Amino acid sequence: MLSVGSNTKIMIDGKKAQLGELKRVVEAAEPGAFLTVNAQWEFDHLKPSRSDQKGRLLDIEVWGRKFAGVVQATNLEKRTITFRDEVKNNITHEADKDAQFVVNGKKATFSDLKPNMHVFLRMSATKNKPDVAVTASGPKVEGIIKAVDADKNTIGINIPSIQMTAEGVRVANDARVVIDGREAKLSDLKPGMRVTLQMCAETDRSLVVGIATDTAAKEP
Length: 220
Fold this sequence. Notes:
By secondary structure, this protein is mainly beta. Helices cover about 5% and strands about 55% of the residues. The chain has one helix at about 20-30, and strands at about 1-10, 15, 35-45, 55-65, 65-75, 80-85, 90-105, 105-110, 120, 130-135, 140-150, 155-160, 165-180, 180-185, 195-200, 210-215.
């Protein structure tokens, strides 16, 4: 059993909250409702995990369910997003006026969302409230650099997992390049480097928006 004290830090949908608000969120949740709960706690003594030991809750963070899909349409006036989920159903969600938006790794606004973007929508933990966060991002691709053309902002990449080599892959002008944890330039990349490419959120085009590599990593 965990006790909640005056020093317990409570966060709901990324905002500070009180114990009463947390109680209302839990009580309003329907049976089978999906909530994400992250928490830290401490005990006076270590005891077997199956004992009825008592402890103190240090902090608790509660979020609603997360959905993934591809944007079909947006309505700025109504702040609604219609997306096609992983089983091809079209679903419309409303975004909260204070919702956080991130597109291709950068802070954005509702108007930056476009059709054909792959998005993750975070629902509110509070029943019947609009979504609180929308992140638009593409897949990550592991590969080996074959060529770099910094003037044209393109790379050649070999992707062993699908036995394919792609030439002239476009890299965004503002793409973030990180080598061994440090900011770098596209021209710093060399053939033979194993890299992770962050592709753009738009599913109808191929554009690299981020490249990271650890030169000390060993080949699998």
